[in-house]
Design brief:
With 458 residues, this protein is an alpha/beta fold. It is built from 18 helices and 19 strands. It has two domains: 102 residues, Arc Repressor Mutant, subunit A, CATH 1.10.10.920; 302 residues, pyruvate-formate lyase- activating enzyme (Alpha-Beta Horseshoe), CATH 3.80.30. The relative contact order is 0.16.
């Protein structure tokens, strides 16, 4: 079980990137054009040992507005709008598929949102069967979908299962009714339990529950009750996210009153209790905000140092080319990132003109590629071997990263890591502050070129 030092949490609680990518999304720019993205897609088809494919589809629609939501979503009950979006999503699939070799395998698929199950069962089947027919799926591909129990029927899950989905993730946030009312997400416990029962009956191989701390009216006692209920439900994975109150970025968050939010001291105590309770219950701390049972693929990948991180969070599928489709979706190839337009109008217009709907992106330079490798190894392996990096990139590690290594001395004194001549090893407490450690190898922070606003690390 983890034992959490609150003093160190307080000391290192500051804004910082989540490193779902490096460089991070605020560095994407509009000078990166769709032509450059297309050129890179075509290049990925040449050479030996071509990367497998990972597919992400953004389905932005929701039935109701959750006040805490930080996702790119659209609140609508207009079914024609949903149908039109699916039509354009299928056109984008056709366009992307045209440029990829037909025999490249898909090893990972994810539907996110929004709420993918805002689609009707027949719409899930329409899109799911189209995707299956368009790509060459590996027999053991990992196919996950985010669901919302509040507007779900068993038929939704049956449609997902019949189209090859084998993993489910769903939001709970908090079982407390007062918290649910304050965040406009009324989700009775029996609905969540019924959904979990359906998922298990239908043979999905994994289920994840999302929780969130820092929401209005949460207390140490009430959130402990939520954790007890979650442990009793016994999902394979649990994600516990930190609510970031950013009404200047997400206007609807202004519907949450700041005076109702737990004070920093309470929030830290909730986090400490959460980590200690979940690890005490047998869950493995994967990293950041993720926990998994010891026999889960994430826990095994962590142990074997095969964990990977991308825009969907921690993953077991490293080295794939990620093609993301739909509004705001971010693709990640070996050397470029490309993000689609944010509005339906711009997205539809590009596709109508037979243009990839990439609005902005980023081409990594040699320094970016090197630092991405270092940052991701720290984020995923909680350690780093200098020689491995030196041999791969032909550098002197201590000279190249002198600024970052110097900064780590204080972290070593605070027992977040051990620093030797040839490696960094992150301690148990350091794993909880891994974002802070990784920031010391971020070239944009070192050069003071990063002016983005990030959520706090704790």
């Amino acid at each position: 079980m983890f034992e959490v030092d609150l003093k160190k949490f307080k000391k290192y609680d500051k804004p910082g990137p989540r490193y779902t990518s490096y460089p991070t999304a605020p560095h994407f720019n509009e000078s990166f054009k769709h032509e450059e993205f297309l050129d890179e897609i075509i290049k990925t088809n040449y050479g030996e040992g071509l990367p497998d494919l990972s597919l992400y589809f953004h389905l932005p629609f929701c039935d109701t507005l959750c006040y805490f939501c930080g996702c790119n979503m659209i609140i609508t009950r207009n079914r024609d709008r949903v149908k039109e979006y699916i039509k354009y999503l299928k056109k984008e699939i056709d366009m992307v598929r045209t440029y990829l070799l037909a025999d490249r395998k898909v090893t990972q698929l994810h539907w996110g949102g929004g709420t993918p199950t805002h689609l009707k069962p027949e719409e899930i089947d329409e899109l799911g069967s189209f995707i299956k027919a368009s790509f060459n799926f590996d027999d053991n591909s990992e196919n996950g979908c985010e669901i919302d129990p509040r507007e779900l029927t068993r038929q939704h899950l049956e449609a997902l299962r019949s189209n090859g989905f084998n993993r489910i993730s769903m939001g709970v946030q908090d079982f407390n009714e007062k918290v649910q009312k304050a965040t406009n997400r009324i989700q009775p416990e029996d609905i969540t339990r019924q959904t979990v029962q359906w998922v298990r009956e239908l043979g999905f191989s994994s289920i994840n529950l999302d929780l969130m701390y820092g929401l209005p009216f949460q207390t140490l006692e009430t959130f402990e009750e939520t954790l007890d209920k979650t442990i009793d439900i016994s999902p394979d994975r649990i994600a516990v996210f930190n609510y970031a109150h950013v009404p200047w970025l997400k206007k609807h968050m202004s519907l949450i009153h700041p005076e109702d939010l737990p004070v920093p001291e309470v929030k830290l105590n909730i986090l400490k209790m959460t980590i200690e309770k979940l690890t005490g219950a047998g869950y493995v701390f994967i990293g950041m905000d993720h926990f998994a049972k010891p026999d889960d693929e994430l826990a095994i990948a962590l142990k074997e140092k095969k964990l990977y991180r991308n825009f969907q969070g921690y993953s077991t599928h490293s080295g794939t080319d990620l093609y993301a489709m739909g509004v705001t979706a971010i693709s990640q190839l070996q050397k470029v990132y490309a993000q689609n337009y944010k509005t339906e109008k711009e997205y539809f217009h590009a596709i109508d003109n037979e243009i990839l709907p990439a609005a902005k992106g980023y081409r990594l330079n040699e320094d970016d590629i090197l630092r991405r490798d270092v940052v991701m190894k720290l984020m995923c392996n909680f350690g780093l071997d200098f020689k491995t990096i030196e041999d791969k990139y032909k550098i002197n590690f201590k000279e190249y990263f002198a600024w970052g290594l110097n900064n780590l001395k204080e972290m070593e004194q605070d027992e977040l890591l051990t620093l030797s001549d040839d490696k960094i090893e992150v301690t148990q407490m350091g794993k909880l502050l891994i974002r802070n450690i990784a920031m010391n190898f971020d070239g944009y922070i070192e050069r003071k070129e990063d002016t983005a606003k990030y959520s706090r690390t704790v």
